[in-house]
Amino acid sequence: MGTEETSTKEPLASARARSEVPEQLAGAVGACHPLQALLMGVAVAAAAYVSGRPLRETLVAGAAILVVQAALGLLNDAADAERDRAAGVAGKPVAEGHLPPGNASFLGVCLMVMAVPLALENGTAAAVALLGYLLAGLLSLTPLRRSWLSWLPWAAGFALLPAYLAYGGWGLGVHGSPPTWTMTVLAAALGVGVHLLLALPHLVADNRNGMRHLPLRIALRTGASRLLVAATIWTGLCAVALVLAAFAVGLRQ
């Protein structure tokens, strides 16, 4: 009897495990914030191409950013799983149980490892800049994100993107030259705008969880609708200013 029961349970457990694979794969895709990762990758690739980089360098530059963004998305959702579940946030595969937090964290680490050769293929100095961008993203997962200094990792991370592009080349070694200060400052300002926009859909849940990051503090004073307008205008102006500065002063010093 005991042997028959065990032999019956094993196929059921195996079938259940196989049925969970597609669900977890779909959850992993959703948890990596694919749209945000794709937009960042395409934007950086386009900037690399406009700056005069060959197509192969353009593709690798964009791919490295895409992989890093996907890794940060997975780690972010894994870190926020309990809070998102408690607040009833929709569209979060990890919080909804489609992907275990441990699996999301493991996939995020795997993607970070995968980003290393892609980053180094852009050049040693560019890889260091991308590492700084990744560290800034990880810093945004710390308690700092709950305070009024939540904008700081976003500004620091985006400020490193011009360096990532300016030092970019093909293969190991130092290529290019330092970015202009104008591009660096404008990129940092753009990062703050992106932070404000991305925080808007989660303001209610963040307020319930006791967070007091910069976007929420502003929204509590002005209202979410005014913050949306201000953040959209700010981000749009920064993006336009970056494009104009790229043609006026250039990417590199």
Output the radius of gyration.
Answer: 21 Å
Specify the oligomeric state: single chain
The assigned structural class equals mainly alpha
Helix content class: over 70%
**Biggest sheet statistics:** none
Instruction: Tell me, rounded to a whole number, the average pLDDT.
Output: 88
Number of domains: 2
Number of helices: 12
Termini gap: 79 Å
Question: Beta-strand level of the residues, as a percent range?
Answer: under 5%
Shape: globular
Q: Return residue spans where pLDDT drops below 50 for at least 5 consecutive residues.
A: none
Order of helices and strands: HHHHHHHHHHHH
Query: What is the number of strand segments?
Result: 0
Give the SSE layout:
Blueprint lengths: L1 H30 L2 H17 L4 H25 L1 H7 L13 H20 L3 H16 L11 H9 L1 H6 L14 H19 L3 H6 L5 H9 L1 H25 L5
Structural features, described:
Keywords: Membrane, Transmembrane, Transmembrane helix. It is a multi-pass membrane protein. This is Prenyltransferase. The N and C termini lie far apart (79 Å). The model has no long low-confidence stretch (mean pLDDT 88). The chain has 253 residues and is an all-alpha fold. The protein has two domains: 121 residues, no CATH class; 130 residues, no CATH class. Helix 5 packs antiparallel against helix 6 and helix 11 packs across helix 12. It is globular. The chain contains twelve helices and no strands.
